[in-house]
Amino acid sequence: MKIAVVGAGISGITCAYLLCGKYKDVHIFEKEVRPGGGIYSIKFSESGKEHFIDLGFTLYNRKHYPNLVRLLDRLDIHSQETFKEICINYQSGRMGWSLGDNSIFFPKISSYFKPFNYKVLAGWLKIKRHADEFLEKRDMDKPLREHLDEIGVQKDIVKFFVKPLVEGLWTSIEKSEFEYYPAYYFYGLLRHLGLFEKSEQSKWRIVRGGSFRIISQMVSALINPIKYQTEVVNVVRNPNYVEVYTNKGEKEVFDAVVIAIPGIDALKILEKPSPSEELILGSFTYGECYVILHTDERFAVSKLFNERAWIIQVSEDDKSSPIVTWNLNRVQQLSLNTRLFLTFTTNPHLIPSDKVIHIIKRRFIKPTWKMLITQRRFGEINGVNRTYFCGDYWGWGTLEDSLSSALKVAQYFFKEQINF
Ligand SMILES: Cc1cc2nc3c(=O)[nH]c(=O)nc-3n(C[C@H](O)[C@H](O)[C@H](O)COP(=O)(O)OP(=O)(O)OC[C@H]3O[C@@H](n4cnc5c(N)ncnc54)[C@H](O)[C@@H]3O)c2cc1C
Hints:
By secondary structure, this protein is an alpha+beta fold.
């Protein structure tokens, strides 16, 4: 069997890695010059020593990333623990809270005398208490704001604490979209991040030596070289074969195609998509933001807290979105004198150019109730018309979702449950 895989992100590479054990004719097409997609590490040199900096996938925990844990074991890649902390910081120094293992932390002794902080704590405890029950109910279309109102989280807590948290966890959210943000996604993502628990298994971890090691090891195990700078522009399905057309004007014939690119793009390259494909793939929407590696400390400092790993800087005016920054020296445990930060923003000019080291534009899925409902219809379009779809959009938009969807696709070929 000859199989085409479109996209050399972790989901495409995982499919090819698993399938090439059974079929020798597996070929990956990648439009960029490198593999990895959302896994991207660059070299940073200081005092003659090289360090690998992750500008994409970085954090995971053992509890909610079981496939990744098994994959790292299989590839013999080591990981290490890092700080689990998300800090909501009001730039004025008026207020701020830090989330980590299971609870909220106040910044200073004086914070314990501020009644508003106790209201925030009470709101957080309510959210935690309702998480399991809500996720169990699988109520996909209930907006978060409505749900919080129902469980008695006060409006000012939603405004000053929950909203910045949502915007800081998922940068593609625009201000107005908070109104429709699904409660199910909110709870699911917080649980995925291990923020409702304090256990060894829920501690945050990073890949030692950079996440790109996952990609390079899997790529080196592939039989056929990846076709870089080769964008698939059209996929034509016939009863007995599939034709794949590229931007180079080439056509190749396969027995099956695995499409491992964002849902919205998958739909665009399908010639004559079925009504189910149109409906399902068309229900995933995306937002874009810039990911900037830089040395500008402004967005990582807090008048209230000492260093934190993940900082959500909230401005006093309600008009601009919070700015999200990862303090990389802390997140990635880098022993560098240079302080490096990764800021997620829709404004490419936010950081002065003399402080910018690297800038990339990235797409993130927008959580909507439509997406949550259609995700359940994976089986309706997979394995039909010689076509298979995988990628992080089949879940919460995390690396674990890419892996589990790739494993599900591989299962269609192996006709049995498989694991790493
Ligand atoms: C800055 C950043 C930080 C992140 N941090 C975390 C984190 O800490 N923890 C976590 O769990 N997740 C994180 N993620 C998410 C995680 O990286 C992604 O979920 C995962 O990498 C997605 O992999 P994928 O294979 O599904 O898709 P992608 O990585 O998007 O791969 C798709 C590939 O297909 C290629 N392609 C697209 N169209 C075509 C075409 N027509 N023809 C050929 N090739 C094509 C693309 O170039 C790309 O290489 C982060 C993502 C980003 C961007």
